[in-house]
Write a sequence for this structure.
């Protein structure tokens, strides 16, 4: 324990926040968010504090007392992300009440919960973190953050996005403290926060407040409302940056958002996005009973634990629970427990894929509609189309994408005859690790 001005400073803790996917909560078929949360040490709050939030579609306002109004609220939350703001501010409130200097903030999420985690990181990037017990200021801080995504000048107020960034800078300097997000881990973030209509928040897809970003993505998901929200890259011009629907790109060689908002210069985020075999919930979990081992989601959970420990962000796991999950901890990194390795090879690499377009045909209604889809090409330019998806696979626009070596194992199995549904360019870079 060190000291500053003669006063003792407590050792920094890990503040680990986990946000579940759409309509997901603790149940018999849990997602990787619940499973990851279950692996964390929780007894010693002087070293680590953990927060779990159920997914979009589970939140009900405290004022909703009627069963009918509660049901309608849940439907609205799932359909149009009605309570997305509340989900983000809920995580922010936990940090405001518990953060102290030296703590490490780590965020995790699946699906729309991954979007929530990244939105929280974006809010912290934009306005910083309020001091403890400033409950009344949270909603205002969130409103200041949301305005920073404006790319147009309001004709009535003559208020532009650059003005909003300046206001965010002043708000941060006046009321808040800057924080760094040590680690953000996501399972298959989707671009649509609602099934029918979506909300877009600024700087969700990239920001310099994040030190390490890890993302497990699905090769076989092909529903139009589950387009992946990958990390956005620098755009070649301000015009191209303005076309980013997530308001996350900035132009190379021009003033970046962190400069406009007065942020100190930081190293670029350590980004790794890896593609795995399986559809959305095969990658993020929730398709199979929680006690079942050797599922596709087991591979992505093990990979995430490996990346957390390799990043040296300091998150503490329960070794007993890791061993039960087949993950053995060494001094430096996790590996699959030797006696379970063969089971993982047989079961996980060849586990069945769950296709929601087949099991839930009503999803085809959306496949027939000319819904907008946008993407960023390898040069950073933005494009969009309104052509019906018709069940087509995802397209990976960055050449030579990172594929898990477990995908190669699956492709090499003659019995499975597996070919990734996603369309990609060039030869994949095979990403391995001691987790398989």
């Amino acid at each position: 324990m060190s000291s500053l001005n003669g006063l003792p400073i407590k050792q920094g803790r890990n503040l680990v926040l986990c946000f579940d996917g759409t309509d997901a909560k603790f149940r018999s078929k849990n997602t990787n968010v619940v499973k990851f949360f279950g692996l964390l040490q929780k007894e010693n709050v002087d070293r680590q504090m953990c927060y779990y939030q159920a997914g979009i579609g589970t939140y009900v306002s405290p004022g909703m007392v009627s069963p009918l109004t509660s049901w309608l609220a849940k439907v609205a939350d799932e359909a149009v992300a009605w309570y997305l703001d509340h989900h983000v501010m809920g995580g922010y409130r936990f940090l405001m009440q518990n953060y102290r200097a030296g703590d490490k903030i780590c965020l995790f999420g699946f699906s729309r919960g991954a979007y929530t985690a990244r939105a929280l990181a974006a809010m912290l990037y934009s306005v910083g973190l309020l001091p403890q017990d400033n409950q009344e200021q949270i909603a205002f801080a969130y409103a200041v953050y949301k305005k920073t995504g404006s790319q147009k000048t309001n004709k009535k107020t003559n208020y532009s996005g650059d003005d909003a960034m300046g206001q965010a800078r002043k708000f941060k300097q006046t009321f808040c403290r800057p924080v760094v997000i040590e680690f953000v881990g996501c399972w298959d973030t989707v671009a649509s926060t609602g099934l029918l209509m979506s909300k877009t928040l600024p700087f969700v897809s990239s920001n310099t407040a994040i030190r390490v970003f890890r993302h497990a993505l699905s090769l076989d998901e092909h529903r139009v409302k589950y387009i992946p929200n990958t990390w956005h890259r620098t755009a070649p011009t301000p015009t191209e940056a303005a076309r980013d629907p997530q308001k996350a790109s900035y132009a190379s060689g021009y003033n970046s958002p962190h400069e406009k908002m007065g942020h100190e210069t930081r190293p670029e985020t350590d980004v790794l996005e890896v593609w795995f075999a399986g559809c959305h919930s095969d990658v993020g979990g929730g398709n199979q009973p929680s006690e079942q081992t050797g599922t596709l989601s087991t591979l992505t959970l093990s990979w995430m634990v490996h990346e957390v420990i390799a990043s040296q962000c300091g998150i503490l796991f329960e070794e007993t629970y890791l061993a039960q999950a087949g993950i053995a901890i060494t001094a430096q990194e996790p590996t699959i427990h030797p006696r379970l390795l063969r089971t993982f090879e047989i079961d996980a690499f060849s586990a069945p894929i769950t296709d929601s377009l087949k099991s839930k045909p009503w999803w085809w209604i959306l496949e027939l509609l000319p819904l907008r889809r946008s993407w960023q090409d390898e040069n950073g330019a933005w494009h969009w189309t309104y052509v019906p998806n018709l069940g087509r696979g995802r397209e990976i626009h960055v050449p030579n994408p990172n594929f898990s070596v477990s995908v190669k194992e699956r492709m090499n199995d003659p019995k499975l005859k597996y070919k990734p549904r996603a369309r990609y360019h060039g030869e994949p870079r095979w990403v391995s690790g001691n987790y398989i």
Observations:
- Residues 1-7, 70-77, 153-159, 336-342 have pLDDT under 50 and may be disordered.
- The first helix runs from residue 32 to 39.
- DSSP finds 15 helices and 14 strands in the chain.
